[in-house]
Sequence to fold (256 residues):
Amino acid sequence: MDIKNQIAIVTGGASGLGAGTVRALAAKGAKVAVLDLNEELAKAVAEEVGGIAVKVDVADTDSVAAALATVRDQLGIARIVMNIAGIGIGRKITGRKGPHPLDDFMRVINVNLTGTFDVCRLAATDIATLEPLNEDGERGVFLNVASIFAFDGPVGDTAYAAAKAGIAGMTLPMARDLANYGIRVMTIAPGVFDTPLARSETGEEGFSRLMSIIPFPKRAGKPSEFAQMACHIVENSMLNGEVIRLDASMRMGLMV
Ligand SMILES: NC(=O)c1ccc[n+]([C@@H]2O[C@H](COP(=O)([O-])OP(=O)(O)OC[C@H]3O[C@@H](n4cnc5c(N)ncnc54)[C@H](O)[C@@H]3O)[C@@H](O)[C@H]2O)c1
Fold:
């Protein structure tokens, strides 16, 4: 799909990988809706690229439906939908502080996994009403974000790993469900990227330790490198139903 003149939604677009992707899509000529819980940051990013900012809590289905309606009214139905909003929590399943609070587990699942599914199911229903763009019958493309923790999660990350494994696992069946509508579904599983989330999760010392176990290049990824892959996924129609690791061949050990 040619990105130029398309309408795109980026959840989590106010910061980190999402903000990098908003900038890349806009640079390629898309009209971008920045959907984020952080309204102030979302506005700043949207203003920078001439897009719109819409406050959303992806864990709240009414909020998701309202945000999609706002985008529809202000820009039109978005054919490009990128689910990049996410949160993490570091906690072992049990320990000196007692069992992992169930509420924390559910919050991580609700934001990362249920939020992604909810945006996809509502956006797909809208996109299905649009005319195909080309002779393939392509109508839209979804990009969801897992993590390498979906496959080799370290100690203290069961909730996050479970949510991200869910996102990886639903990629193929969702692509199959949406094939008749001409909507592709892809997932990126990033390694370590230099964003506020990554640094706050690990702390500065943990972040440096992570760099030491990355084979090559021995550094955190840049949001622009994630965005480059995100744009390629939109542009290359043969990519569908797959999870791509973007991780400089990093494999997690026991600990971060
Ligand atoms: N940075 C990494 O190293 C890394 C690695 C693997 C996966 N990821 C994933 O990439 C995605 C982006 O992460 P990032 O590192 O850019 O983080 P970030 O914290 O910089 O950005 C996340 C954005 O999501 C928004 N958000 C959080 N909860 C929300 C909610 N309920 N509704 C709407 N928006 C919400 C935040 O306000 C923030 O703007 C996340 O899904 C994360 O799990 C990041």
